[in-house]
Amino acid sequence: MCGIAGIVGIEPNYQAEPVEVHRMCQTIVHRGPDDEGIYAHGRAGLGMRRLSIIDLSTGQQPIHNEDHDLWVVFNGEIYNFPELRPELEARGHRFYTNSDTEVIVHLYEEYGADCVKRLRGMFALAVWDQRRQKLLLARDRFGKKPLYYAMDSERLLFGSEIKALLAAAPDFAETDLHGLLNFFYFGYIPDPHTAFKRIHKLPPGHLLEFTEGQVCVQKYWDLPAHGTYEPESEEECVEELEHRLAEAVRVRMISDVPLGALLSGGVDSSIIVALMARISSRPVKTFSIGFSSPDFNEAEYARLVARQFGTEHHELYVEANIEETIHMLTRSLEEPFGDSSIVPTYHVCRLARQYVTVALAGDGGDELFAGYERYASYLRRRKLRVFPTAIGRWYRKRIHPAVPTEWRGRRFMYNLSLPLRERYLDGISLLPACLREQSVFSREFLAWADKQPSPYDPFRRYLEHGPASDPLSEVQYLDAKTYLSGDILTKVDRMSMANSLEVRAPFLDHPLAEWAARLSPHWKVRLGELKYILKRLAERLGVPREVLYRPKQGFSMPLLHWFRQDPSPALLDILLEPRTMQRGYFDENGVRRRVLEHRKGIRDRSWELWHLLIFELWHRNFMETKCGVGSNTELQPGLALREATASARAPAFARV
Description:
Radius of gyration: 25 Å
CATH superfamily of the largest domain: Aminohydrolase, N-terminal nucleophile (Ntn) domain
Structural class: alpha+beta
Mean pLDDT: 88
Helix content: 40-55%
Shape: globular
């Protein structure tokens, strides 16, 4: 695991400077604190920061081939490299390390850009082919590892984080209004957009080839046709799922450094811990976060799982006082990012890093096996065909604006007036059209936004032209292509790498994911029960029923409670400052009204205010300063924390 960065000139006589590549690498030291390596020759410069996981003694990068005319930098882990290496050696390739990175070099020699199709794992990689004067960039199938790129008149830049690009080209810190509009819709910025006009994300499952000054981006993988596989029996389905998931866990437990698991107390992470406990010869180290607010606290369920599987359990309770932490997290995230679970994710990764370098987690289970409540809600609402198309359009235009804003059924009725697929899009958006007439946004910004292509358009294409043939599979595919990489995996990568921790996601093993995608939808949702087949596996593995059959909480934090406690209200004052309003995005009266309603307890506005606050802090950190470069990117604790460690048989914790 590491961070990568690099420069390739457009013209053959361009000279890549090692000192510039080094400057890019210095912005991502947290991703790889153990080592730095740089290759610079002619028009190409490649750099990496290394977090040593496999082959601690000889795995330094960049890595080259026998002729020293092919160079690779790589961020991630390749789990099938032990199988690929003998195949390549049989074809005459000579290895000088035991690392997974060197396999990529020789695979490229054999297969060119198609080499990425042979890789099983998580990766963002760069291959410089000196003989052909060609650069290959590639990102793993689900986007577990980030990769950004940008071009100016002289060169192409790439890196694991935006800060690396800004270190070489500060003038790239130019706001992309279309990216920001996406944030206001969804709470994150879907690829390939970013918050910066000239910087792009390489989408998951895509590769980029750069030669003779031309960039070509193409897709190399996608999920297969959904809902086409029907096991003969439930027993067969559970057994096949268990076999595939156990294998995914097994290969991810290969490590030359200490390893553990992030345990939320939910179904997915509990299954991962159960399988790890079966495979491991010693107690698994598990890590969880708790809150004093019972509506958000899952620690007791994590303790139940820890006891059941005899883990060495470590627990941390997080309390209010978020001001300092939020400032630091926005610098780490680099873009506006509205998922408040960044805070507990950061702290559970920080806790885990005190004991291990690698941790397995349950990310991806909700998307593959239908774990979100919005799936069940969408399926229910599809049955309510209240409005024919013409009447629905008339309702939205004529009736809805007159409905009192305080009526709780207002948004529900608006949603029902939409066409079926639009109901799902409306449900996942932060800025649904029905709220615009009472918006916190300025008239100028909304007038500009109304003239732009709808941020929903790429989402509609996934729904209409994806490989799914039933309503559940359609929205699962959409989330796998957008929310999973844009929100979940971005959050996990940034918060884990801020702590130099590698997090591995067995559910996103692509052979398992392809099998799950083909699985008929009634194995995922049955009679309203989400994750049907996954829960049957959990029962078989011995996961406590109290964990399996409780309402899903999600890994979030008690914003309503915290925003009303000292000193957190000072954060809301930021939204009312003149510098915030002078940017032109927000309507001052609308923001002031929401802050007042929230503080007086009239209405819970925490979700809206959190997103506005995150946006403003991002603007201050990246648009008013040195673009986040040169600032302290090493996060420090801003919450009141105290950790307690105990065996699973006698859990203990401390509150502050």
